Amino acid sequence: MNDLEAFVRLAEALAPWRGQLVYVGGWAHRIHRLDTRANAPAHQAVFTKDTDLAFAAAEPIEGDIKAALEGSGFKEQLSGESKPPVAHYTLGTEGEGFYAEFLTPLAGSGFKRDGKPDATLAKAGITAQKIRHLDILLVDPWVVKLHPDNAPLKTSMDIRVANPLAFMVQKFLIQKQRPAKKRAQDILYIFDTVGLFGGQMAAFQKLWKVVIGPGLGKDRDEVIKLNEATFSKVTDDVRSAALIPQDRKLTAEEIQSTCQLAFEQIFEG
Q: Do 78 and 86 meet the contact criterion of CB atoms below 8 Å apart?
């Protein structure tokens, strides 16, 4: 089973909750490539085995997601000392297979009244990790149609994925908490997303002004500052990002200048 077949099995298992769950991680970027607004990429997507799905903390979720996953061959893997423990839902052998994890926004200090970390939430039979700066990925998600021509499906189905602009903006917000290797990967995600949606800059500019920017509140100005720090010049992180792809040649200068120009347009005004 290849990774797209595994993803489709996950999407089919979660079909009853497709209106409540949003794909937000690396697989959101993979699915962006299937959107009709995307430019056809000539290169491979950044590889990722895990699929991150998010739901709003206050949104009621009915049914048993865990039972649906187990019925499709996924196994629950628990780890850590959190209560409930952190959970991955794995298809295939551990370490080699495909897995999904569920996320929900973290509000407040990140600690419970007793001083213990407020890190996980049990809901609809599954365990979700609480993540800061997840909220923006739930703003104005896109609906992408999977169908037999772009995925191993017999019938078409819609799934919700993080808005590409929100996807890029969130990469800035989490930057300070990421190790160097992950920061470089996030820069490559941003660069590739700009390439996929080069024709959407005017739409992204309006979305930033009307929806995404206001939705960030006090973090709006921080995103602009982080963008300038990331792309105003070639940095070590940008250089590292250019070295990641194995199927194409990129230069740090290409990444830096492309992203700088794109965000100058998006953040204009």
A: yes
